[in-house]
Structures are given as structure tokens and as C-alpha cells.
Write a structure and sequence with these properties.
By secondary structure, the protein is of the alpha/beta class. It is built from 13 helices and five strands. It has helices spanning about 5-30, 40-45, 50-65, 75-90, 90-100, 105-120, 120-125, 135-145, 205-210, 215-220, 250-275, 285-305, 330-340, and strands spanning about 150-160, 180-185, 190-200, 225-230, 240. It has a five-stranded mixed beta sheet with strand order 3-2-1-4-5, with helices on both faces. It is found in: Cytoplasm; Nucleus. Belongs to the HARBI1 family. Keywords: Cytoplasm, Hydrolase, Metal-binding, Nuclease, Nucleus. Pfam families: DDE_Tnp_4.
Length: about 350
């Protein structure tokens, strides 16, 4: 005859063992973030297990701890802490609570990772891209029939906290928000081919472009092809903009094809800010904000090249860049040639 007391003791013993196993597994998983499945990792870190492992291999020479301390952070832990911050955009102490470490450790990990990623800038961000230039042109042509395009150009603002010092007003943009103005160029696959992240929010898009080294290279004719920009840029032989007031049917069709093709940079902006929520508002100084922006662009290109799962795209905010009325005569003639030869 079974004894209820013995059965109860056995059940309680099983519960205790199960809880001990769960605690042990939780501790083991905490020390190894890659122990979780891809769905959990993507939700928490915006990358799959293989993607995080790839980033760890890239950054290992720069962030590996040469120490014999028992509780030193591993490379996967350091990388995942930074990815958690980039992906959530929350406060450092909130990331620390989620990862069960101190706020100071989170701050050090994030800084170590974004400075290490910045060192890989020229590896993952190259103009006109990682593919042959004819392949890039063909991909853009397949969107709306716009020929000879090697990149879509635009700027976006990344909001920051009010900086201290005499230059605080320089960071106030047209919407009276403190920000940095970031120039990016993307290909047809939304991979970023150029980034300029060093200008205050009050600086106009066209000035950022004219001050860039890429502008000088294009002016010297080092690249065969044209960029597409919005009304915030002057029409140049190597930078085509839409007609302000189209008069003919060819000009209307040119504008439609131009908008559809240039829309890839808007899509890239949406992808980056959806994957890395921290770019909606950075509570850091302008120099650190610029470094974080560059790091996120490098991570975006890694995600695109590795075909990581894409987040739901949030529409990019229109920052209301005023139109440039002064246009280059040669640029206008080339734009008319495109409209009459390809869209008539």
C-alpha cells in the first residue's frame, strides 16, 4: 500500500532538484549569451547566434580581456551588452539590470565595442560599394529604370542631449532639437557606402556634402556614374536632383523615377533606426554620439551582408530640409539630357 507521506516527500524532492537545475541553467546561460535560441537573441540583441558569433570573431583582437580575474566579462558578454544598448536605446542601468552587471561595466563595454567597430569602418563601408560598379548600376536601374546611378544620397538627424559649452546653439536644428546631422549614401540593397558623422544639427545637407572628401573625388571624375539627391542639394554633373517645377511629361516621369530610386536611402535610414533604437535619442556628448552612429552603420552593413532578419521599418521623420535654389548650369543640362533621352 502506497504511503502518501513518502509520495509527498518524493514530489518535494523532485521540485527542489528541478529548481536547482533551473538555477544552474540560468547561471550557465547568463555567462554564455549564445546559449539561447535565435528568436530570443534577435529580440534582445537584434542579431542571430551566428551573427553575434561573427561579430565576436571580428572584435576579439580588440576587446578580449587579458586578465586572470574569475568574473571578467567574456567577448560574447561584452558584445551582447553593447548590442543590447544599441538595439534598445534604454538607460545604461536598465541594460545592467537586464544583463545582471553594474552600470559602470555596461558603460565600459559599450564604449569598448563602439570604438572597436569604428576601427572596421573602412572594411565594411566603402564607396561605391562591395560589388562591381556595373552591378550597382544595374540594381538601381531595376528599381525604376533610372540609368547610371551609383548611390542614393541624403542626411538624417540623430537627436542628442543638450551639449554643454559655447557651441551648444550649433547643434539646434530647424525643428529646435539638439542633433547631429549625418550624411549617408546607400546602394540599391540599402547597404551604406559612405557615412559622414561629425556635423552639428544646424549645418545644411549641401554644406556637409561639399565639405566631404567624396565630393572632391566625384568632382575629379574618379567615379563613373551619378548620385541621386533631394531638393536640399544643388544639381551637379555627378549629383542629380528632381525638378522643382516640372514642365514637360518627360520631366514628370524623371521625377517619379528619381523619387522611387532615391527612396532606397530613406529605406536604409528606416532600417538602421528600427534595428538600433538608440539612434532615436542618444544621451551622450556629440563626439560619442558620432562614434556610436558610425558603429551602428557598421553593424547595419554586417547585418545586410549576412542577411540577418530585418526589423519592421519605421518611417523616417521628415526633417524639412530647405531647397537649394542655386544650381549648376552643367548639372541642369545633364539632368535635361537624362529626362529627354530616358524618360521622354
Amino acid at each position: 500500500m502506497a504511503c502518501p507521506f513518502i509520495d509527498e516527500v518524493v514530489d518535494e524532492g523532485a521540485i527542489v532538484l528541478r529548481r536547482a537545475f533551473q538555477r544552474e541553467r540560468s547561471f550557465r546561460d547568463r555567462s554564455d549569451p549564445l546559449a539561447f535560441n535565435d528568436s530570443y537573441l534577435y529580440e534582445r540583441y537584434s542579431f542571430s547566434r551566428e551573427g553575434i558569433a561573427y561579430i565576436c570573431r571580428l572584435l576579439n583582437p580588440y576587446i578580449a580581456n587579458n586578465t586572470r580575474r574569475n568574473r571578467a566579462l567574456t567577448v560574447p558578454q561584452t558584445v551582447c551588452i553593447a548590442l543590447c544598448f544599441f538595439g534598445s536605446g534604454t538607460f545604461l542601468y536598465t541594460v545592467g539590470d537586464a544583463e545582471n552587471i553594474s552600470k559602470a561595466s555596461v558603460c565600459r563595454s559599450v564604449r569598448t565595442v563602439y570604438l572597436s567597430l569604428k576601427r572596421l569602418l573602412n572594411v565594411f563601408i566603402t564607396f561605391p560599394g562591395h560589388k562591381a560598379i556595373c552591378t550597382i548600376k544595374h540594381a538601381f536601374y531595376g528599381i525604376a529604370g533610372f540609368p547610371n546611378v551609383i548611390g542614393a544620397l541624403d542626411c538624417t538627424h540623430v537627436c542628442i542631449k543638450c551639449p554643454s559649452g559655447p557651441h551648444e546653439a550649433d547643434f539646434v536644428n530647424r525643428k529646435s532639437v539638439h542633433s547631429i546631422n549625418v550624411q549617408r549614401i546607400s546602394d540599391a540593397d540599402c547597404i551604406i557606402a559612405n557615412v559622414e558623422a561629425k556635423w552639428p544639427g544646424s549645418v545644411h545637407d549641401s554644406r556637409i556634402f561639399r565639405a566631404s572628401s567624396l565630393y572632391q573625388q566625384l568632382a575629379r571624375g574618379e567615379f563613373s556614374g551619378v548620385l541621386l539627391g533631394d531638393k536640399g542639394y544643388p544639381c551637379l554633373p555627378y549629383l542629380l536632383t528632381p525638378y522643382q517645377e516640372p514642365q514637360t511629361e518627360a520631366q514628370h516621369r524623371y521625377n517619379i523615377a528619381h523619387a522611387r530610386t532615391r527612396g532606397r536611402i530613406e529605406m536604409a535610414f528606416g532600417l538602421i533606426k528600427s534595428r538600433f533604437q538608440c539612434l532615436k535619442h542618444l544621451r551622450v556628448t556629440p563626439p560619442r554620439a558620432c562614434d556610436i552612429v558610425v558603429a551602428c552603420v557598421v553593424l547595419h552593413n554586417i547585418a545586410c551582408l549576412r542577411r540577418e532578419r530585418q526589423p519592421r521599418i519605421v518611417e523616417e521623420e521628415d526633417w524639412g530640409n530647405e531647397a537649394v535654389l542655386e544650381e549648376n548650369e552643367t548639372g541642369r543640362l545633364i539632368r535635361d539630357t537624362y529626362a529627354n533621352n530616358y524618360f521622354a
